[in-house]
Amino acid sequence: MTAILPPIPRLVFTVLEPISLLAGAVAPFVSPEWFIAEQIAFSTAGPVTANARMVAYQLGNIYLLLAMVGIAVLSSTTEAKVVRNYLVALWLADISHVAITSYILGPELLLDIANWNPMTWGNIGATVLLFATRTAYLLGLFGPDRKPSPVSRSNKKLQ
């Protein structure tokens, strides 16, 4: 994985986030009905239509794509600008993800944190934690980016 990230962001962005994205990718394929019903805790979802199932499968596919792009970008570059631009794009997506989820939940369900289901914790709780970690990294709170060692570059060329 990218050697330029400090240890905490490296763990979060190259291990924990891809694992959570893979879980999000698998869930709609295991049970699209469950995945759809769990989007809003205590909602009374009716029968799942083919349209809803298609949207759930496509969302799972997007989660898988995000996991693969994240792993590819963060494991293949030592360019700080690439890593930072990638994380800024995700930072912006975190904002819209939480905003849309909050809007759809409405104030009553949004503020009823004690009754959030695992899906809501993932959509809001996990996203806010990722957003906070990205913010801290982008502000330099984890320290400076590490410089890739010239030895590791030359070793890669030899292999």
From TrEMBL:
The keyword Mitochondrion does not apply. Keywords: Membrane, Transmembrane, Transmembrane helix. It holds the Pfam family DUF7704. Residues 3-144 form the DUF7704 domain. It comes from the Eukaryota. Signal peptide: none annotated. The chain crosses the membrane at residues 12-35, 55-74, 86-104, 124-143. InterPro entries: DUF7704. This is DUF7704 domain-containing protein.
